[in-house]
Amino acid sequence: MANEPTTQPTAGSSWQAKQVYAMAVICLVVGLAIGYLFRGSQSPAAPPQPAANAQAAPTNAQPAAGAMGGHMPSLEEMKQMADKKAAPLLEKLKGDPNNSDLLIQVGNIYKSTHQFKEAASYYDKALQIDPKNVAIRTEMASCLYYNGDVDGAISQLQQSLRVDPKDANSLFNLGMIRWQGKQDSKGAVAAWQQLLKSNPQLSAERKATVQKLMADVQMSHSDTGTLNH
């Protein structure tokens, strides 16, 4: 983890395809792949996320490659695929615009094809109907982060934690985004400490994952003896 890049896009910046794919391979923050380890119960409509694997892209990106004859599609090709797949659901939404499950399904399609801005917009509409859906707000935070809105992502996670202060996935993601997106080591460690404190039921493996991240952060600043704000 310590060798992963710490430079993240600023709000409003656009991502090139190679940058999106690179981040997907790292599997840091969409979902967050590692954050999946901490998911307990969540909305049935929320998509399953792959387990952490720094050597492989998220599994939800693999069907897209297969559909394009084995080559990695461009973001534009993935957008076309998402639009086609979402079309029947969007048609249903015309007659049932407040159906949060449909909105989430559309958001999932766009997220799985790296169309993070579109995904966030549909998650946002679903949250306007069901503002206490912590799992979907966490998904929205991930999309905002990928789209370059680090502060927006943190804000969404903070809202999730106001609903459920013990939500392990929100706390884990908050730590990751503070560390990777804001270079806020102290804030990252605080989030992970809260995660461990408020979730004593975590398995030894899950605790070890968080403790390893905390150790990596602390080691990276051992020369100063303090953690950055």
Describe the protein.
The protein is mainly α and 229 residues long. It has a single domain, classed as Serine Threonine Protein Phosphatase 5, Tetratricopeptide repeat. Helices cover 60% and strands 0% of the residues. The chain has ten helices and no strands. The protein has helices at residues 17-26, 62-67, 75-95, 100-112, 116-129, 134-146, 150-163, 168-182, 185-198, 204-220. The longest helix is centred in the middle third of the chain and has 21 residues, at 75-95. The protein is globular and about 55 Å long. The two termini are 20 Å apart. Residues 1-64 have low confidence and may be disordered.
Question: Can you summarize this structure?
Answer:
The protein is an all-alpha fold.
Please tag this protein with its features.
mainly alpha; globular; disordered N terminus
Mean pLDDT rating: 76
Q: What letter string, H or E per element, gives the SSE order? A: HHHHHHHHHH
Let me know the number of strands.
0
Q: How does the major sheet shape up? A: none
CATH class: Mainly Alpha
C-alpha termini separation: 20 Å
Task: Specify the number of helices.
Answer: 10
What fold name stands as the CATH topology? Serine Threonine Protein Phosphatase 5, Tetratricopeptide repeat
Radius of gyration: 17 Å
Specify the CATH architecture.
Answer: Alpha Horseshoe
Percentage of residues in DSSP E strands: under 5%
- Any idea what the CATH superfamily is called? Tetratricopeptide repeat domain
Low-confidence stretches: 1-64
**Count of the domains:** 1
* Helix amount: 55-70%
Shape, principal axes of CA atoms: globular
Structural class: mainly alpha
